[in-house]
Structures are given as structure tokens and as C-alpha cells.
Amino acid sequence: MSGGLDSATAFAIAKSEGYEVVALSFRYGQRHAVELTAAAKVAEALGAEDHRVVDIDLRAFGGSALTADIAVPKDRDESQMSSDIPVTYVPARNTIFLSFALALAEVTDSRGIFIGVNALDYSGYPDCRPEYVAAFRAVARLATKAGVEGRGAMIVAPLIDKTKAEIIELGARLGVPYELTVSCYDPSDDGAACGRCDSCTLRRKGFEAAGIEDPTRYTD
User: Fold this and answer.
1) What predicted TM-score, i.e. pTM, was given to this entire model?
2) If you average pLDDT over every residue of the chain, what do you get?
3) Is 122 a residue whose pLDDT tops 70?
4) Which structural domains are found in the chain, ordered by start?
5) Model confidence band, residue 119 (pLDDT cutoffs 50, 70, 90)
6) Are 21 and 46 in contact (CB under 8 A)?
7) What is the pLDDT at residue 123?
8) 176 C-beta neighbours (distance < 10 Å), count
9) Is the alpha carbon torsion for 139, 140, 141, 147 positive or negative?
């Protein structure tokens, strides 16, 4: 539960399928804490049974514009976004997050771990691809007592093959409060989106393509 658009939609999908949802967020040394505030608001609005925030300081490794003193790329078009893996990629982040989620799922006897990764309208991250999700499903089966016993949690990536517009359309039908979400890589201290980073560009174009009013509060 990052506080962003995709994880909020994944949460709503889980609820619509009858799951009782425990939201899991991370304070991992990211540039801004506003996304955690957003995650808490979304979790409450969508009816989380519990919302846990885990502290991990990935600044110890750096290597990303989100965890080190590296400028966030801005004003890029989609061809530039897809030309390489951007500096906003946080090394091994989804692997780390899913490992923690796997531990929590085993302790709580959960049957599903929902993650909002997407392989279409995304910024080229290697840990958002279908082959990555498939590989981690194998890890989940092999690496836990619950998995070995055949009762482990399934890794569910319900947005993996959807465009940003399709995600927004689905979330709108499920009542996702997108006005509470923050997707920006470089928001202001009060949570306003920059409107220029890759994430803002993809989010804005998604709302436009879906024909749904963008509720995002931009700095401009």
C-alpha cells in the first residue's frame, strides 16, 4: 500500500473479491513521507482490517532518485521513459517488500498477497514484469512453511496487463478515492504533485484516456 493509484486499486479489487484486507506500507527512506499519509487515508477509506507500516532504510544502499541525492527525471515523453531503466528504480524494492508481505501473510494465515505492479503503462522497472511475478510465486511456494504445506499465499497482480486508463476505469467503478492518492516521485511538502515526473505524466494521461476527471492536486 504505497499511497499511489495502483496499490489503491489493487486494494479495492481484493475487497471486491471478498478478502479482509491488511494493508502493508513501508517507510523505506523515500524522498517524501506524504505517500504514507496518503496510504493511511486510503486504507481507512477502503476499510482495511489493519494497516501496518514497516521501517526499512534503503538509503543505506542508495542507487535511486527516491532514496539518494539524485535528481528525479522530469518532462520526459513516453519514448524516453521506455528507453532504459530510470534512476527512480529502487534496487530490489519489490523483492524486499514482497518478502516482508510473505512473512506477514504466513503469520496471519492469509491466502493472497495483492500487489499493484503493472507491465504496460510503467517506467520500465524490472520488478513490475509478469516473469518477475511468476518467479516470486515460485519463491513463495518454496521458501515458507505454509508454501511447503500447500497453504501458502498466492501472489496476485491484478493490474499486470492493464493500461493506466483501464486501471483508473476499474478503480472508479469500485469506488477508489483517487483524490486521496499520491503518485508523484517529487511532491511538495504538503503533498501536491509536481506534474512533471514520469509517474505524474503517466497518471495524467491515464485519467485523460479514461475520460475521467483527474482529482490530483498539482503544484501548478
Assistant:
1) 0.94
2) 93
3) no
4) 5-210 (3.40.50.620)
5) confident
6) yes
7) 62
8) 23
9) positive
What per-residue confidence (pLDDT) applies to 214?
95
Q: Please choose, from the candidates 204, 214, 215, the residue with its C-alpha nearest in 3D space to the C-alpha of residue 74.
A: 204
How many of the other CB atoms lie within 10 Å of CB of 90? 23
Confidence of residue 79 (pLDDT cuts 50, 70, 90): confident
Say whether pLDDT at 120 is over 80: no
Residue 23 backbone dihedrals phi, psi, to 5 degrees: -85, 140
d(CA 149, CA 174): 34
Written as nine digits, the cell of 57 is: 532504510
Residues with Cβ within 8 Å of 77's Cβ and at least 6 positions away in sequence, in order, are none
Rounded to 10°, the helix 5-16/34-46 angle is 20
Longest CA span, the chain: 54
Q: Side chain identity at 216, as an amino acid letter?
A: T
